[in-house]
Amino acid sequence: MRIDVLTIFPAYLAPLELSLVGKAHEAGLLDLRVHDLREWTQDRHRTVDDTPFGGGAGMVMRPDVWGRALDDVLTPGAHLLLPTPSGDVFTQATAHAWADEESHLVIACGRYEGIDARVAEHYRAAGVRVSEYSIGDYVLNGGEVAALVVVEAVARLLPGVVGNPASLVEESHGEAGLLEYPVYTKPPQWRDLDVPDVLLSGHHARIARWRRDEALRRTAARRPDLIAALAAGALDAHDRAV
Ligand code: 6GU
């Protein structure tokens, strides 16, 4: 997969060279390119923004600069992503869809009050798939952190990126629709706290049942909305008794 990120703060994306995403990039599993939007400015001051028509606080990013940049970076079939707090919420399902179905994502990071609305309108009219997405109900200063979130969430689902694909199976927001159960490692006693006995028992069926119970309890306590959204038949009689 190819991912291009356009931003006025390329240094904000530096963490993508680290860890698993950095390794995927080095291994050629992910073709990641970060661009400085100001390379597409044409004035001495490298201006990317201006005052909003209709008045109001803050600045708006100019469509002409974005248009030159996106015309250069978009390829046929690319999916244009616009991070914005007013977008559709990005979820694990979105991450899977993009990892499985897309070959080129272009993430256009806005700053200030956002990007002139004609940019999304123009590319949609030109037949480009455009998705405006939010990473949650809070306000950030720009799209860069939301770009980091999408690159990491999508890249780890690409074939070969996560060493042990089994670790993708039982995680929170996975197929079961539940939060993950608590995990423990050595030492079995730490300060005054013991690892739950069942996990040391070697009894695989009991361990699986305990983990599911914990996942259910945790999800009911922290995210009752996820319990309500479970498919009919997702919970058996034992589950409902937890
Ligand atoms: Cl995608 N952008 C900004 N600026 N703020 C956000 C967001 C995105 N998602 C949540 N808050």
Labels describing this entry:
242 residues, alpha/beta, Alpha/beta knot, Trp Operon Repressor, Chain A, 2 domains, two-stranded antiparallel sheet, 9 strands, tRNA processing, tRNA_MeTrfase_TRMD/TRM10
Task: Furnish the topology, listing elements before pairings.
Layout: E1 2-7, H1 19-26, E2 31-36, E3 49-50, E4 60-61, H2 63-73, E5 79-89, H3 92-101, E6 104-108, H4 118-125, E7 129-134, H5 144-155, E8 189-190, E9 193-194, H6 204-222, H7 224-228, H8 237-241
Parallel strand pairs: 1-2, 1-6, 5-6, 5-7
Antiparallel strand pairs: 3-4, 8-9
Helix pairs in contact: 3-5
The protein binds 6-chloroguanine.
Walkthrough of the structure:
- This protein is of the alpha/beta class.
- The chain has 2 domains: 2-155, Alpha/beta knot, CATH 3.40.1280; 170-241, Trp Operon Repressor, Chain A (Orthogonal Bundle).
- 32% of the residues lie in helices and 17% in strands.
- It contains 8 helices and 9 strands.
- The protein has a 5-stranded parallel β-sheet with strand order 2-1-6-5-7, with helices on both faces. A two-stranded antiparallel sheet has the order 3-4.
- Helix 3 crosses helix 5.
- The radius of gyration is 22 Å and the shape is elongated.
- The two termini are 42 Å apart.
- Bound molecules: 6-chloroguanine.
